[in-house]
Amino acid sequence: MTSCPCVPRALLAVALVALIGQRSAVAHEAEHTAVAFTFARDGSFVLDVTNDANWLLLRLESFVAMEGGNPGALATGTGRRTDEQRDERLRALASLFVDRIVIWVDGHEIRPESIEYVPPRKLTPEDRLQPLAAYRLRGHMSPESRGMRWYYGMVADAYPVTVARADGRSDTDMIVTGDAWSRTLDLGGQFAAPSRRELAREYAGRGFESVVPGGAGFVLFLLGLFLLRLERAAIVRQVATFVLAHSAGLWLTATRAVTMPPRLIGVLVAVSVVYVVLENLATRELKPWRLAMIVMFGGAHGAVLGDRFAVVPAPAGQKIVALLAFNGGVEAAVLTVLALATLGVMALRLSTKEARTR
Predict the structure, then answer these.
(1) Which terminus in the chain has less CB density within 10 A, N or C?
(2) Mind giving me the DSSP string for 89-137?
(3) Is-contact 149 185, C-beta < 8 A?
(4) What pLDDT does residue 48 have?
(5) Is the pLDDT assigned to residue 240 strictly greater than 90?
(6) Greatest CA separation found in the chain?
(7) In which band, very low, low, confident or very high, does the pLDDT at 17 lie, cut at 50, 70 and 90?
(8) Phi and psi of 216, rounded to 5°?
(9) Strand 34-39 to strand 159-164: parallel, antiparallel, or no bridges (unpaired)?
(10) Residue pair 182/302 in contact by the 8 Å Cβ criterion
(11) How many CB atoms lie within 10 A of CB 260?
């Protein structure tokens, strides 16, 4: 009995198709695409398009070649770019990337006004996946805009799109299938300019929430100041210094008069909590240098608040009102924390006193 030669050929064909499909799946998984729109009251928007940096470079270089250009030369003898060279090349290809997307609003295209390449952060042992890069685009559309469709012409697999509306009504999440148009997104009603009272109420709430419950480091540092010495004069001097320092940091950062690297800010906030705990353990005296340290660390805490304020841009011409309200909300949170701490200390003293009298 002879074997049919067509059988192994058929098996080989099946294996070849499976191998190609597997390689295609791996290539698509390398995209790691995610898209996020954030709208502001004045019609401005921030668009973050996130991808794996190495995949992104390969795709953009392929478009360079198709358009008759000269792909960037590999800079090392091993045939691989360093991460820094890759990121520099991606910055240079930003204008090419813009041509691969379409923002279609009410029957016409909206072109971004600026584009910034955001390189991936350094890989850490805690990361399960490679950190991603992003192109951050900023633009503006008419406050009368009603509907938007989105197209990203470089991807093959489905990817998530998140839309954060300016009115905070609800975030829209959807999945777009690869090289296809999104469904029409409703933009209506979010660009109506709020009154000053509504704006102040909105930003005061954001300021309060940035501290309680959103500012654990801020609260711990504040409690450390409170607990150094339970005397009114010591508490007032420290808290007043901290309020002035974090308010200055907030305004300087929110207005972009001063910028600080996020990593440095995070380190200073963490060190501030450690510092105040250790000094409280070492002494109960308000040392001269403590106020200087409060100024430095307060500026770092204020920078964190400034970044949180800037997440959702204030309407044009009302930034000062929004900042004042946000700062007021922060100080209301400070008073709340101090009031709760005072009540806690009073309750502890009362319970201790009652225990001694028994």
Answers:
(1) N
(2) HHHHTHHHHHTTEEEEETTEE---SEEEEEPPPPP-TT-SSPPPEEEEE
(3) yes
(4) 95
(5) yes
(6) 105
(7) very low
(8) -60, -45
(9) parallel
(10) no
(11) 17
Q: Which two tokens stand for residue 189?
A: 């009603």
Residues 305 and 250 sit within 8 Å (Cβ to Cβ): yes
**Residues 25, 150: contact at Cβ < 8 Å?**
no
pTM (2 d.p.): 0.53
User: What tokens does 321 get?
Assistant: 């009102």
Cis bond before residue 262 (omega within 30° of 0):
no
Pairing between strand 101-105 and 108-109? antiparallel
Question: Distance between CA atoms of 296 and 260, rounded to whole angstroms?
Answer: 13
Q: Roughly what angle, to the nearest 10 degrees, separates helices 319-357 and 216-228?
A: 50
91-140: per-residue pLDDT in tens?
999 999 999 999 999 999 999 999 999 999 887 777 677 889 999 999 99
Instruction: Return the pLDDT at 1.
Output: 41
Q: Please report the DSSP string for 166-228 in residue order.
A: TT-S-EEEEEE-SSSPPPPEE-TTS-PPPPHHHHHHHHHHHHHHHHTTT-HHHHHHHHHHHHH
| Residue type (1 letter), 204 | A
The packing angle between helices 262-282 and 288-309, to 10°, is 150
